[in-house]
Amino acid sequence: MLEKLNLDQKISKQTYRRIAPLLTDRLYSLQKASWDEKIPVVILFEGWDASGKGTSIQKLTSPLDPRGYKLYPIRAARTYEKKRPWLWRFWLKLPSRGEWAIFDRSWYGRVLVERVEELTPENDWRRGYRDIVDFERTLADDGHLIIKFFLHIDKQEQKRRFNKLARDPLQAWHVTSEDWEHHNHYDDWFVAYEEAFERTETEWAPWTIVEATDRRFTWVKIYRTVINDLEDRMGLPHLVLPPASESDAGDHEGPGMETASEPDDEEDEFEALLG
């Protein structure tokens, strides 16, 4: 699945500046509508290190009413959590009716990091696929809207981002020895991701793979996916974005999409790398 993606897609600055206000306004109104309709929304982000998960979450939540969502950065289970069923700690974080829960990493750690780093016996993490599908089916049957994102970059792009951050004294702390160890085992992670998609792709909780080389393309795809899913759930017409203008040179495959190139300036590049 991942190897077939076109990672060279880009959205121009001009197009992004034209459509971003439309997307943020629509997202805010849909958050209010989902509250009125009492629809609990679960949004989770998985992806490669340095693929931009943190920045993308920041962009997604910037127009939202903070009273209506909670953000959960997921780390390794604590000692007391390990003494309970492994999904217990995620059950506690589910949203109330009308609220959103956004996960920076998620229960997929069971079949990803715990698998690749051999933190969990193989029988346990293999059983995790079934547990996850059953968990998400239960949520969907109870009325939850589940939106799952995976941010994808290739090995070369990940290395470039690591090196860029490491050269800046103010940013170097973002890249740890553990990050480089993960990078060195890129192929192992690739296999784990592919199997996770294959075994947990369902009609009630489908994956959206986001080509994350270009930050603006990433943000627009995330916005449009959330907006479209909410509109479909509530039976609302889809937001129609304006066509690309003549000034957006090189646009194709939709509004303002181009072939990816180097970021336009240093500030934009570091903005893309954080998270």
Report on the architecture of this protein:
By secondary structure, the chain is α/β, with parallel strands linked by helices. The chain has one domain (2-270): Rossmann fold (3-Layer(aba) Sandwich), CATH 3.40.50.300. The chain is 47% helix and 13% strand. The protein has eleven helices and seven strands. The protein has helices at 13-36, 53-61, 79-82, 88-91, 113-116, 122-141, 155-166, 177-184, 186-200, 215-234, 266-273; strands spanning 9-11, 41-47, 69-73, 100-104, 145-152, 207-211, 257-259. Strands 3-4-2-5-6 form a five-stranded parallel β-sheet, with helices on both faces. Helix 1 runs parallel beside helix 10 (215-234).
Descriptive key words:
275 residues; alpha/beta; Rossmann fold; five-stranded parallel beta sheet; two-stranded antiparallel sheet; 11 helices; 7 strands; 13% strand; globular
Report the CATH C-level class. Alpha Beta
Tell me the radius of gyration.
Answer: 19 Å
Uncertain regions: pLDDT < 50 for 5+ in a row?
249-275
Strand content: 5-15%
Straight-line N-to-C gap = 24 Å
Beta-strand segment tally = 7
* Main sheet makeup: 5 strands, parallel
CATH topology heading: Rossmann fold
Fourth-tier CATH superfamily name = P-loop containing nucleotide triphosphate hydrolases
Quaternary status: single chain
> What percent of the residues sit in helical stretches (DSSP H or I)?
40-55%
Number of helical segments? 11
Note the overall shape: globular
- Category by helix and strand content: alpha/beta
The strand order across the widest sheet is: 3-4-2-5-6
- The average pLDDT score comes to 90
**Number of separate structural domains:** 1
